[in-house]
Amino acid sequence: QVQLVESGGGLVQAGGSLRLSCAASGRTFSIYAGAWFRQAPGKEREFVAAINRSGGITVYADSVKGRFTISRDNAERTMYLLMNSLNPEDTAVYFCAARYTVYTQTYTSMKDYDYWGQGTQVTVSS
Description:
0% of the residues lie in helices and 52% in strands.
């Protein structure tokens, strides 16, 4: 098993940047694919970005492509989400997720993930 804890959320003005972190404990982190999802008030949780076990393959939702960057440091057992050019529509609780896999692919569906963090609030003011 792996336990995930997000940090780095907060209040930022439109156009600003934040970097979220997802610290993992438990088994070796490099055997897990990872992702970030978000949930805005009154909306369903949605996919943001995913990364494979090694960090060599990433995929993004169209709404964040070119603005957000997902990365990971397996030695530090941490996954990151760098968010640039933030706008009020990015306001949400952001969750990191992980799943054990032997494959090198990424996963973009909530149902693919077994482990979740508690979430961190990101609020973007206009």
